[in-house]
Design a protein that fits this description.
Layout: H1 23-38, E1 43-45, E2 55-58, H2 71-76, E3 82-92, E4 96-101, E5 111-116, E6 119-125, E7 130-135, H3 137-150, H4 155-158, H5 161-166, H6 168-189
Antiparallel strand pairs: 1-2, 2-3, 3-6, 4-5, 6-7
């Protein structure tokens, strides 16, 4: 399983909903969790590995703070790593906070993104449990980032423009590398 990088068209597609949690979906989420850990990430969305499904995995249990400010953090953090199926943001507070984000699909690039501090997250766990919880902290941030992936949106689309501009050379190189890879694949098929 390899992580698709900036310039790969799979990262710009809207993902299809999961209609049934099958053994195949369970196996996929297990592989995604392994990949996320292998890449030293805290979240990974299915399109990042070339799968067009509304699934992401997450493990934000990296903070030392045992107290979690929102019900979602208190309930979900002990269950990490976690796979969420068909996640959606039902609502968010108006208060947006800045945070320096990075992404496994855009290695070597970081930029500040303003996102709502608290969201109401609705999803289904891999065990079929329906959740609808208020989430804050790193859980909220990561869930928003991964849901963006499911909608074909990258953090660089929402980041502070001047910071993205500083990384334009890296982005151009990633895009060119992907174009060469895709061109080679097309030639092999002919």
């Amino acid at each position: 399983m390899d992580v698709k990088t900036f310039g790969n068209p799979v990262l710009r597609r809207d993902c299809e909903p999961v209609t049934e949690i099958t053994d195949e979906i369970r196996k996929l989420t297990e592989e995604m969790i392994k990949c996320m850990y292998d890449e030293n990430g805290i979240g990974l969305a299915a399109p990042q590995i070339g799968i067009n499904k509304r699934i992401f995995v997450i493990d934000t249990d990296v903070e030392d703070d045992a107290m979690h400010a929102t019900p979602g953090e208190a309930y979900l953090t002990p269950k990490m790593p976690l796979a969420l199926i068909n996640p959606e943001i039902i609502s968010s507070n108006a208060s947006e906070v800045p945070f320096l984000e990075g992404c496994l699909s855009i290695p070597g690039v970081n930029a500040t993104v303003y996102r709502p501090e608290v969201i109401r997250l609705k999803a289904q766990t891999i065990d079929g449990e329906n959740i609808d919880l208020e989430c804050g902290g790193l859980l909220s941030r990561c869930a928003q980032h991964e849901i963006d992936h499911l909608n074909g949106v990258l953090f660089t689309d929402k980041a502070v423009e001047s910071e993205v501009a500083e990384s334009q050379d890296k982005l151009d190189k990633l895009k060119a590398t992907n174009q060469r890879k895709l061109s080679k694949k097309k030639k092999r098929r002919l």
